[in-house]
Structure formats: C-alpha cells, structure tokens
Amino acid sequence: MSTLQLDRLAPAHVMPAHGEVLVLEDSVPLALRREILGLVRRPIWAYGWKSVKDHDRYGFWHAHFAGGGEDDQLSCEPALAANVQAQPIHRLWRLLASGILEGHVPVRVYANGHTYGVEGYIHTDSEEEDAFTTIYYAHAAWDANWAGETVFFPQGGGAGKAVLPEPGRVIVFRGATPHVARSASRECPELRVSVVIKTRLARPGDQ
Predict the structure, then answer these.
(1) Are 67 and 106 within 8 A, CB to CB?
(2) Do 150 and 179 contact (CB within 8 A), yes or no?
(3) Alpha-carbon gap, residue 52 to 159, rounded angstroms
(4) What are the backbone dihedrals phi and psi of residue 14, each rounded to the nearest 5 degrees, phi first?
(5) What element of type H or E holds 95?
(6) Rounded distance between C-alpha atoms, residue 91 and residue 54, angstroms
(7) Alpha carbon distance 107, 28 (integer Å)
(8) What pLDDT digit, counting tens, does each position of 52-108 carry?
(9) Coil, strand, or helix at residue 141?
C-alpha cells in the first residue's frame, strides 16, 4: 500500500494504481472551501446511512447531492448542476474535472458525516476496473488527536495505510480498494465531513 502526494491538481494520466492512494494538498481555492463549509454546516443531513446495507450494523450521517443507485453508471452531472443547494459541490466537481479527474464521468455525489462513536466498516465502492472514488475533506479544522483517519487495506492482507482528514485535502483511489472511515475521538468537537465523488472513466458513446 503506497501513497502518492501532490501539491496541486494533477494531470489526468496520474491515476492511482490498485493499492495506491493519491493525496492532493492545496488544490481547492480558499473561497470554494468556505462555500462548501457553509453548505455542510446547514441542516442537510440525514442519519442512518450505511456503506453496505446488508452488512453494516450502524449507520452515519449522509447528504445526497446527485446520482442514482450503486449500479447506475449514467452521468449525474446534469442533476448536480441542477441542484441549487449543491452549487458549491458542482463547482468542486468542475475544478477536479479540469485536472486530476479529467476524462472522468461522475455517477454519484454525496457527503458523509462522522462524530465520536459513529463507526465505519471496511468496504469497497466498486469492482469495476475503471471506477474511482475521490474524497474532499470539508470540515473547518482537524487535529491528529481527533483520529478519524481514512484507512486503506491492501487486497490479500498486509499493512494498511491511514490518511488523516486534513481540511481541504483531496484523496483519489480506485473503487476496488478496501477502505474505512474511522470514528472521530472523544476530544473531537467537529463533524468529520467527507464530500465523495464517485466516477468512472469516460466510455465510447458517452455524451
């Protein structure tokens, strides 16, 4: 399990291989970060979402912005663009689509929220070869003592890799990579917010 770290939006060909996590710092302008923070601090949340409904025992906070079910591979960009409430998220998508996610099609966009005691479960997002997940950490502040890491696990066992949810950080990984959002610690006063953009590579026939 390895981590690739970049300090700006990367060109489209820099995609993580299986088992890798791409970490981007300072890639989202401060003004857009503030807009997204304002959105996720509004009462947009519903409690009880589960990554794997038939397996997970406990849920977490969730806000849906665009896209269909897990098997829906149609572009959700028109729906995201039409979602008046989610315009900051649409601007985030357009920013990423002009750089690291160039040539990708968004199929589902949402946000997850975790607080102390709200656990995640190890899961994968997709088994498709061309499926990717991008996470933007939208909370205002984070401290290493607050825990809440996103942990990635190599297929077949071995040492995992933890990424701290630093505000403004963007991570990209393949949907088939097993991962989990760990609970924030008792010390944490923040809602841990991850904006999730699930994509696939563009295919012949896409509009």
Answers:
(1) yes
(2) yes
(3) 23
(4) -85, 80
(5) helix 87-97
(6) 34
(7) 21
(8) 556 655 667 899 999 987 777 899 999 999 999 999 999 999 999 999 999 999 999
(9) coil
Q: Which amino acid, 117? A: G
| Amino acid, single-letter form, for residue 73 | Q
**Topology of domain 2-201, CATH:** Jelly Rolls (2.60.120)
pLDDT tens digits, 132-150? 999 999 999 999 999 999 9
Backbone angles phi, psi at 3, to 5 degrees: -120, 130
171-204: burial string, b at 16+ Cβ within 10 Å, e else: bbbbbbbebbbbbbeeebebbbbbbbbbbbbeee
3-state secondary structure of 40: helix
**For the chain, domain boundaries:** 2-201
Task: List the structure tokens of 88.
Answer: 């900051």
